[in-house]
Design brief:
This protein is an all-alpha fold and 165 residues long. It has helices spanning 5-20, 24-33, 42-49, 57-67, 71-74, 94-105, 113-128, 135-156.
Length: 165
Amino acid sequence: MSEPISAEITAQILAARRAQGTTREEVAAAARRAGAPESFTTAAYRNVESGRRAVDVDELLWLAAALEVPVRQLLGAHRDRFGADVATPPECGPVEDATRQAVQELGDLDGREAPLAAAAYRLARQLDDGAGMATAAVSKELRATLADIWEGQGAEDEDEEYGPS
């Protein structure tokens, strides 16, 4: 994945057009129907496809619509770096990764849960980095922080008559 994202997007745009069997003129016209300005001509599209000009975010959306493909498809090998609801650092260790996955499975976080999740990620990162002699204390603090998050999640499901579900 050493190729720049813009070069990968250009390659994916070209591949999608060829797979669809359409001309540059047809793609440019479809992009305009999808919201691109009249200045997005065949020549402008040709500059994108040839790599002379990188697309901006708006153009990426219009071209995805014109080519009838998901935006993420046009990101090619970089698609997994985009579209996540929770940002995951590219280099996180196993404890932080597991913590992020567990918190993500909880869904939307409200109130004090989001700051608690941030604290949990920080603590997990410390464990991954080998907190030395403090590993046991950091692990205990992480467990307590995660318990607070889960407790907050459970409070939303309480039924006055029957208690937590």
